[in-house]
Amino acid sequence: MMERQKRIRTPRNPQPKEWMASELSQQYVASYKPFNFVDGEGVRCSLYVSGCLFACPGCYNKAAQNFRYGTPYTRELEDQIITDLSEDYCQGLTLLGGEPFVNTQVCLSLVDRIRDTYAWTKDIWSWTGYTWDELMLESDDKLELLSKIDILVDGRFELPKKDLTLQFRGSSNQRIIDVQKSLSTGEVVLWDKLLK
Ligand code: SF4
Question: Looking at domain 21-185, what is its CATH homologous superfamily?
Answer without folding.
Answer: Aldolase class I (3.20.20.70)
